[in-house]
Amino acid sequence: MTRQHDPHDRGSIDEFKDGLERFHVAITSAADIFQRFSRALDVALQDHSHIDTKDCRACGKPDLDHWFTSKRDGTTLCEACFTVRCGTGLAKEDPQ
User: Fold this and answer.
1) In which region does residue 89 sit, left (phi positive, over 0), alpha (psi from -120 to 50) or beta (all else)?
2) Secondary structure of the chain in HEC code, one letter for each residue
3) How far apart are CA 67 and CA 74, in angstroms?
4) Tens digit of each residue's pLDDT, the chain (96 residues)
């Protein structure tokens, strides 16, 4: 048995409005999530070639993933050159 819709029934109108409000909240939340994701994706896909890379000052090895920086003069060294300098006493690991 189906219930007949009475357009003058306030309960039906209020239920409909509540449903529309819930739908609006859901759509607004989904749109917000989509915009945030889109911005994050744009940042992730940007060309990062402008980011300063580190090159070893002693041997010239480019694009170091791991490096050592002198506290005295800011020189950047690769791990191999730093190890050599430590062996000769020209560099030492920071104990901190």
Assistant:
1) left
2) CCCCCCCCCHHHHHHHHHHHHHHHHHHHHHHHHHHHHHHHHHHHHCCCCCCCCCCCCCCCCCCCCCCEECCCCCCEECHHHHHHHHHHCCCCCCCC
3) 12
4) 566 666 566 667 888 888 899 999 899 999 999 999 998 888 877 766 656 788 999 999 998 988 998 888 888 999 999 999 888 888 788 766
Token pair in block for residue 37: 């994701």
Residue in 39, 48, 43, 77 with CA at minimum distance from that of residue 60 = 77
